[in-house]
């Protein structure tokens, strides 16, 4: 028992759960005025945020903060597109020991297809919590081992998980044969930079309203 308590206290001391604590000044970065200006501005904003969050004491305080954050995001990003029918289509099902997996695609915008998989725990009844899972930068999307490990961990805990392919990953790759644009991060940049130049908000561009339907994800994909 003493060993377990000691291990827990050590782990607690080592784990830093501050979301923004990773932001550090890179002293080795070439001395450029733009970097210093952006870092200085970001540091001031992070300090203001830290002070504001430390003052939150009640549920009402957090709800006011939540409403303020939503308003700031809406102002910075612009309005999101109106909701449209998703028209989901299941293309196949995998039967596993503890869950079933439905392979599917849906339309996030009319004619704009998104490939995904719905992980359903077998031993479920009544209402079950669900997670919308967005994977990180992997060419295979949520199929990567590290993401599968996380998803199946959620499923074993009783969650339903809908994992989808972000743009440039999995079955939503647009530049498979173009070396300088083939990596997920390069695809993001190639599609994202023109939107900033045009002054268009990310929700509009990512919905397919600007660049049109994906050329690599069609209705016959399995």
Describe this structure in words.
Pfam families: AXE1. It comes from Rhabdobacter roseus. The protein is built from 6 helices and 5 strands, in the order H-H-H-E-E-E-E-H-E-H-H. The N and C termini lie far apart (51 Å). It is an alpha+beta fold and 222 residues long. It folds into 2 domains: 47 residues; 118 residues, Alpha/Beta hydrolase fold, catalytic domain (Rossmann fold, 3-Layer(aba) Sandwich), CATH 3.40.50.1820. Strands 1-2-3-5-4 form a 5-stranded mixed β-sheet, with helices on one face.
Question: What is the CATH superfamily of the largest domain?
Answer: Alpha/Beta hydrolase fold, catalytic domain
Please trace the helix and strand order, writing H or E for each element. Answer: HHHEEEEHEHH
Helix content: 25-40%
How many strand elements? 5
Count of spatially separate domains = 2
Sheet with most strands: strand arrangement: 1-2-3-5-4
Biggest sheet details = 5 strands, mixed
CATH topology of the largest domain: Rossmann fold
Question: Any idea what the radius of gyration is?
Answer: 22 Å
Strand content: 15-25%
The CATH C-level name of the largest domain is Alpha Beta
The overall average pLDDT, rounded, is 78
Total of DSSP H or I helical runs spanning 4+ residues: 6
CA(first)-CA(last) distance: 51 Å
- What is the molecular shape? globular
**CATH architecture group name of the largest domain:** 3-Layer(aba) Sandwich
**Uncertain stretches of 5 or more adjacent residues:** 1-14, 206-222
Structural class, by secondary structure, is: alpha+beta
Organism: Rhabdobacter roseus
InterPro entries: AB_hydrolase_fold (IPR029058), AXE1_dom (IPR008391), FrsA_esterase (IPR050261)
Protein name: Acetyl xylan esterase domain-containing protein
Domain Acetyl xylan esterase: 97-175
């Amino acid at each position: 028992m003493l060993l377990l308590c000691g291990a827990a206290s050590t782990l607690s001391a080592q784990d830093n759960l501050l979301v923004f604590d990773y932001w550090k000044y890179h002293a080795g970065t070439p001395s450029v005025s733009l970097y210093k200006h952006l870092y200085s501005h970001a540091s001031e904003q992070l300090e203001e945020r830290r002070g504001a969050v430390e003052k939150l004491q009640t549920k009402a305080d957090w709800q006011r903060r939540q409403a303020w954050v939503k308003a700031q995001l809406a102002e910075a990003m612009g309005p999101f597109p109106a909701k449209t029918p998703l028209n989901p289509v299941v293309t196949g099902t995998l039967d596993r020991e503890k869950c079933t997996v439905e392979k599917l695609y849906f339309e996030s915008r009319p004619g704009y297809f998104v490939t995904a998989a719905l992980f359903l725990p077998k031993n479920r009844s009544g209402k079950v919590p669900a997670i919308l899972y967005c994977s990180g930068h992997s060419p295979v999307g949520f199929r990567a081992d590290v993401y599968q490990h996380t998803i199946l961990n959620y499923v074993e805990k009783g969650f339903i998980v809908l994992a989808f392919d972000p743009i440039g990953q999995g079955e939503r790759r647009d530049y498979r044969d173009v070396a300088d644009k083939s990596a997920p991060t390069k695809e993001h940049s190639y599609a994202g930079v023109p939107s900033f130049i045009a002054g268009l908000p990310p929700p509009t561009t990512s919905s397919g309203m600007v660049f049109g339907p994906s050329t690599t994800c069609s209705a016959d994909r399995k």
